[in-house]
Amino acid sequence: MNFHELHRGDRPLVLPNAWDFASGAALAEAGFPAIGTTSLGVAAAAGKTDAAGDTREETLALARLLARLPVPVTVDIEGGFSTRPEDVAALVAELDSLGIAGVNLEDGRADGTLAPVDHQVTVIAAVKRAAPRVFLNARTDTFWLGDPDREETLLRARAYAEAGADGVFVPGIVDDADIRAVLDTAGVPLNVLFIPGKTEYPRMRRLGVHRLSTGSLLFRRALQATVAVAAAVTGDGVDRSVPSYGDVQRLVRR
How far apart are CA 149 and CA 153, in angstroms? Predict the structure, then answer.
């Protein structure tokens, strides 16, 4: 089954997000039908902060490795590492040539604002012209940055789908009414971020969500496990809570 078809089943596609080849290979061996990448994990592993737009080379290097996996791979390219539509399109075309099946392309910017809708529509259209077979998951950060905004989300979901996006990703959306509204409006598969206690798989399946991503959760839990196992050697007390997104960002800023 190809990557596009995995979004059309009778249950959500669970998409775990890897940060290096070993994590991706382990997830594929465990039976997951597709693998994504986490931009936080990729950036932090390189000693960089996430969403700063400077991990293009690291992202491409990981994509070359993950393309060896026996399952489809989708790559998080943040905002495309450029504001020029032709540059983003060229990047996705290169990923396509490597055998990458999909990309996440977000409208959130490093300064906490959203890209103008008309600009993002132009980028999406350019990407689809350059790499039509790549599954373009258009992420909107209307619930991720600042106060959740359903109307802006619906406007962007509709515009991105009309521009050619194959799916829409709304990280941070959790309420039934909001999710149903996006499903009714977008007309393309909806991706929701798995948030423990807020977007449980059974409920997402009942609502008709098409894809459930783990985002940076696996990477952050791996960091937690690393510290816990090391601390267990001596039994010394160490804070073993799962680091938050902000905790990881602070780690690499030191």
Answer: 6
What residue spans of the chain are helical by DSSP H?
A: 21-29, 39-45, 56-66, 85-98, 117-130, 150-163, 176-186, 201-207, 217-232, 245-253
161 within a domain of the structure (yes/no): yes
Residue 246 lies inside a defined structural domain of this protein: no
Give the number of C-alpha atoms closer than 13 A to the C-alpha of residue 149, restricted to the C-beta side. 14
CATH number where 179 lies? 3.20.20.60
For residue 169, give the nearest of 180, 182, 178, 159 by alpha carbon: 182
CA 191 to mean position of chain CA atoms: 9
Q: Confidence class of residue 236 from pLDDT cuts 50, 70 and 90?
A: confident
Distance CA 114, CA 145 (A): 8
Sequence-distant (6+) residues with CB within 8 A of 172 are: 141, 143, 144, 148, 193, 195
pLDDT digits (tens, 9 = 90+) for 134-189: 999 999 999 999 899 999 999 999 999 999 999 999 999 999 999 999 999 999 99
Domain assignment of residue 21, given as a range: 5-219
Query: How far apart are alpha carbons 171 and 136 in whole angstroms?
Result: 16
In a domain, 227, yes or no: no
Q: Is residue 114, in this structure, part of any structural domain at all?
A: yes
- Provide the phi-psi class of 187: left if phi over 0, else alpha when psi is between -120 and 50, else beta: left
Q: Which helix (H) or strand (E) holds 75?
A: strand 73-76
Tally of structural domains, the chain: 1
Q: At what angle do helices 56-66 and 21-29 cross, to 10 degrees?
A: 40
Q: Round the CA-based radius of gyration of the chain to a whole number and report it.
A: 18
